[in-house]
Amino acid sequence: MPTAVVWDPALLSYRFNATHPMDPVRLKLTERLCREFGIFEDPQVSLITPGIASDETLRTIHDPAYIEAVRAGSSRGEASTEHGLGTEDTPVFPELHEGAARIAEGTLRCADALLEGAAVHAVNFAGGMHHASRAKAGGFCVYNDAALAIHRLLEPGPGRTGARRILYLDVDAHHGDGTQSIFYDDPRVMTVSLHQTGTTLFPGTGFPNETGGGGPVGAEGTAVNIALPPGTGDAGWLRAFHAVVPQLVQAFEPEAIVSQHGCDSHMSDPLSDLQLSVDAQRQMALDVSHLAEEHTENRWIATGGGGYAVHDVVPRAWTHLTAVAAGSPLRAHTEVPQAWRDYVRTACEVEAPQTMGDDAALWWRSWELGYDPSDAVDRAVMQTRKEIFPLYGLDPWYD
Questions:
Q1: Signal peptide: which range, if any (predicted)?
Q2: What is the predicted pLDDT for the residue at 399?
Q3: Domain spans of the chain?
């Protein structure tokens, strides 16, 4: 199916410093692995070369004073604690504004591709900057590209009306706090985040009782958080996803899905305490694609996000994501091309995996089989269902 994929080597300029965990080599290796599998050469795949988002465009989501602070950090090296810039997580560097604005433009171009009918699926694996809020950077994120794309989809334009409802789905190990905060009072956007509980992981938010703005805005129930315990693996994660997400997608009736596929939930990732496999992350991509097929006439924008096992996990997870979006999923036991493994050994001085999966036996217990109050994952799921499901006429126990 027609799929747009964002890529330009200039995206590699978004690099905080030589020791920062968000090493852009993860993007370079993903792009190279996609090419080894011929994904970019598929006649249904078109490549988007992003420019740099204008300040006017960025202001549709971000505060003007914040954009100026980012520019000052780039041009003069000025830190701004008020705006989350110059911290250990998000240090300033000369290409900060241009690099972040290029990532933002990439996901905006994905939205344009859907709006223009040039594609039904679109991928920006350099995107997914979900910790950036309206006026503050955080967690390595400066401009919230997904939020900008959602705004583009919602707004009417020449010859078209804006979308009525958009689903934002975040499966990063960390809570998608920035995106949630931007749309917390907007009933047109449902933000759903599965993540390690904020009691044990940055940013310390994303609890089930964060349900969206109430009162006159009528957005209660449009923020959905499944806060999972440390150590959650494939079976628990997939059980939680299927116990909450498909039911709410059906109830909310979105016209497009924008998803964030941070792969730092992997068992090898140094920045979380989850235990997922690449196989489960591949399954997440397949499940989101299926939801788009069932509910949004296939309209789906997928972004990257976190992921700090940069040589072995990230390239495989996001190559799977891109292949799924392109309609040509790779099997988890597919052999990694030897040419790519040789490149990783030479360029990065590490050994790359031999297959595209972790040989995981994916299985999860359906929620319909019953709730186990002694299971920490089940308790987390039940908290979310009790908060959200009644607002949509869904029985929190059985439906």
A1: none
A2: 44
A3: 3-392
